[in-house]
Amino acid sequence: MTTREIIIKESKGALSLFKKTSDKEDFDFSGISALRQLLRNEKIRILSVIKNEKPSSLYDLSKKLNRSFKSVYQDVKLLERFGFIELTEEKVKNRTRHRPRILTDTVTVHIKI
After folding, report:
1. How many CB atoms lie within 10 A of CB 6?
2. pTM for the whole thing?
């Protein structure tokens, strides 16, 4: 497991967000609203269910969350994009399913003023 580091710093009179990881380049966020969007309660619930209940697929995850597959898929893709989870492809009979797995066990937020 790794730690994802989010840095908030003052830039030209406003706060700017940057995501920094040890193995990837920095990502410039569009603003504070991007951090709020990334760490909303529903996305935190997704991380919790993946960690504790270990769903076998995205469909299973959506059922455990009692949410539509489409909304869970969109949230999972965002979490995957920022390195919080990964989707592992598995062949089951004639189908391919994507099993979500947690990559990050800690998120650190730094605010530089």
Report:
1. 21
2. 0.73
Give per-residue pLDDT as tens, 79-109.
888 788 999 999 988 989 999 999 987 877 7
Domains, the chain, ranges and CATH?
2-112 (1.10.10.10)
Between CA 73 and CA 11 the distance in angstroms is: 34
Tokens of 108: 């650190």
CB neighbour class for 19 (10 Å; exposed up to 12, middle 13-18, buried from 19): buried
Residue 8: beta bridge partners?
17, 111
Confidence of residue 39 (pLDDT cuts 50, 70, 90): confident
CB 19 within 8 A of CB 29: yes
